[in-house]
Amino acid sequence: MVNVWGIHMPESVGPDAIENNYIAIGWHEVGNIFELPADRNAYKDAVTVAYPEMKTGAVPVNAGVLFRYTHEIKAGDLVVFPSKHDRQINIGRFTGNTERGENVELAGNILPHRREVEWLGHFPRGDFSQAALYEIGAIITLFLVKNNTNEFLAKIDPSHKPPQAMDAEETPDDDSVTNFVSKQAEETTHDFVIRKIHAGLSGYEFEHLTAHILECMGYTARVSDKSGDGGVDVIAHTDELGFQPPIIKVQCKRITAQTGEPEVNQLLGTLGEGEFALFVNLGSYSRSARLLERNRAKLRLIDGEQFVELVLEHYNKMSARYRTLIPLRQIYVPDLIDG
Questions:
Q1: Using one digit for the tens of pLDDT, what is the confidence trace for 72-115?
Q2: CA–CA gap between residue 339 and residue 323 (Å, rounded)
Q3: What are 74's strand-pairing partners?
Q4: At what angle do helices 287-295 and 261-268 cross, to 10 degrees?
Q5: Could you tell me if 47 and 55 are in contact, meaning their C-beta atoms sit under 8 angstroms apart?
Q6: 86 CB contacts (<8 Å, ≥6 apart)?
Q7: Domain 197-325 has CATH 3.40.1350.10
Q8: Which residues pair with 323 in a beta bridge?
Q9: C-alpha span between 10 and 176 (Å, rounded)
Q10: In sequence order, what E strands does 180-274 have?
Q11: Which residues of the chain does CATH 3.40.1350.10 include?
């Protein structure tokens, strides 16, 4: 029977994991978890020794993650990895190869325990129901996907049948639940805003929304004519008449998929003296497009995550039309930074 697993990794690790075909977890202080016996108590003992300050209730939760990662995942099992850096749902197949790398550090994260994955597809979050997104927002690092398996696997194998549920997971402690609720509230809001914009606006209307956001930020903005815009959808500037530099040329894409370097280069080709380029979409950008942004001082890329942040920041200034399209109410959640 093929099982479907979900995994969370640090945001900074996601791009490398996708490019180099692996998933990874930390707990490097425990030692080589691939060499521990197939005994849950052995994992609990190892976690207790490595982390003597860990709360008693958290020990079996973390030990269970390590045990499942080492002994329950089999070659041919499937994995669902929601990558926050590009808002994609990545689906892959485990090859069975494992590796314990010493001193493996990436972007400040030490993740020595790797499992090789053959990535089968990368899909926008908007392709999945909110119930499916809730499930892969589980509290712990590694978990079995139980309730929405077919929705994920329909992307790669429409005939696949969901696996039977395995034993219940250990109950996480209060701190883990609090962190989960806070993160879920943030993720749900971002998904909601993007869904509302994508479903409620045409491409041309999205250009007007982008111009409106820029105006809320203090710019003067106008939308180009539908025909003959040459890839420039919005012109923004700091003075009312638009005579003073800098002039910002904006291209808008109402897509939740990934935008590549060629589209970004097309916008750059329209720039003249004293002009800057801003590309806005509801999805993400390829690595080469992001590299281009880092190397071009006059280019800025705004993805779906960042666009939602701008909407939230300037929501009170937005017109009634857009606040009706995107109905939001302020709530308070625990501050994860202050703990």
A1: 999 999 999 998 878 889 999 999 999 887 656 665 677 888 99
A2: 32
A3: none
A4: 30
A5: no
A6: 14, 15, 258, 283, 284, 285, 303
A7: yes
A8: none
A9: 16
A10: 220-223, 234-237, 247-253, 258-259
A11: 197-325
**Nearest CA-CA partner of 27 in 142, 137, 118, 172:** 142
The boundaries of every CATH 3.10.590 domain in the chain are 4-172
Residues 221-240 have pLDDT tens digits of 999 886 555 689 999 998 87
Round to whole Å and give the CA distance between 30 and 289. 39
Angle of helix 174-200 relative to helix 58-67, nearest 10 degrees? 60
Q: How many CB atoms lie within 10 A of CB 26?
A: 16
- pTM for this predicted structure: 0.66
Q: Let me know: does 56 contact 122? Beta carbons within 8 Å.
A: no
pLDDT at residue 105, rounded to an integer: 63
Q: What is the CATH architecture assignment of 4-172?
A: Roll (3.10)
Alpha carbons 204 and 257: distance in angstroms, whole number: 18
pLDDT tens digits, 138-191: 767 899 998 888 888 888 876 765 444 444 445 444 444 444 444 555 667 888
Report how far apart, in Å, the C-alpha atoms of 280 and of each of 248, 271, 298, 306 are.
Answer: 12, 16, 14, 9
